[in-house]
Amino acid sequence: MVMNKDYFLNRVRLRHIQCFVAVAQERNLGKAAERLNLSQPAVSKTLVELEQMADTVLVKRGRFGARLTPDGELLLSYCVSMLEALEGAQRSLSRGFSGSQESVSVGALPTVAPDLLPAALADFRVQYPQARLQVQVATNNLLLEKLKAGEVDFAVGRMAEPQMMVGVSFEFLYAEPLIAVVRVDHPLLNAAGATLLSEVVAHPLVVSAAGTVPRHNTETYLKERGMHLPEHRLETLAVSVARLVVLQSDAVWFTPAGAARDDLQRGLLAVLPLSFEGTEEPVGLLYRSEAPLNAPGQGLIRILRNTNRRKEGALTFNAPEKPARRR
Fold first, then answer.
1. What DSSP line would sit under 116-179, residue for residue?
2. 245-254 in b/e burial notation, b at 16+ Cβ within 10 A?
3. Do 126 and 297 contact (CB within 8 A), yes or no?
4. For the segment 118-127, what is each residue's pLDDT rounded down to a tens digit?
5. Which run of H or E residues covers position 108?
6. Which of 21, 305, 301, 304 is nearest to 153 (CA)?
7. What is the DSSP string of 37-99?
8. What is the pLDDT of residue 318?
9. Dihedral sign, CA of 202, 203, 208, 213?
10. Is the sign of the CA dihedral 295, 296, 298, 303 positive or negative?
11. pTM here?
């Protein structure tokens, strides 16, 4: 990004920043206009003014909506921090303000949210009883977009391509493998001899949606063994749907281990004795590098770290002993 610093600082106005952030968050000029109570031409004009001041294209417009350019991504982190600072100042000056009224918005992957968040959120409520808390569940790419646009304060997710990580820091929590799970009385658990992958894929499969890391790992795992995903499969991001389908049918669920941890520990699901060595993927905290969190946000991160330490070692599941084969 090349610009005349004095020209930019002397001419940029709060309305430019608010408009730019709204477009980045809504990813659509029309929706941003509705949110700002402006016409779409007015939003477009304000964006053009900001781009002229910055001497670069910040937003690509098209039929797909509005997407930030690399320069736009770089500017966004500063604009979000600026607006958050102003909102914090406004709250501080408001009559009767108390730090206990602050809010936290956390994003999480669908396969991570049911595993790591419940215990952490329960502890958080005890420590911050008056804080407003919001949880947004989304794919990793969408989490990163929400994070950079200021829609979530931080997220529990995965590393991404370098261009997606501009302005974002990653703190490693744990690595979890892919596993294949079934209901505890599934026929595959009663089969004589070793469970063969060819037998597994003959059953209906439940897998993550296309474009996600678990889906990529599942396809790679099968491809390396000369197989591919069968047509008779269910694709879903909803862990609640996946687990219920598996509990009520002969389906096999390929999932990151954490998503099934609770059901495995309760004895509702069982791990198929297949080797998934090398499928481990790191999970960690994602937060904007230049944006300090408020006290409740820092508290929730501390709680998540402690919750993760308590769960360490519990992500390795041993396959159950096979019961006697039914006759």
1. HHHHHHHHHHHH-TT-EEEEEE--HHHHHHHHHTTSSSEEEE----GGGGTTEEEEEEEEE-EE
2. bbeeeebbbb
3. no
4. 999 999 999 9
5. strand 103-108
6. 301
7. T--HHHHHHHHHHHHHHHTS--EEEETTEEEE-HHHHHHHHHHHHHHHHHHHHHHHHSTT--G
8. 45
9. negative
10. positive
11. 0.71
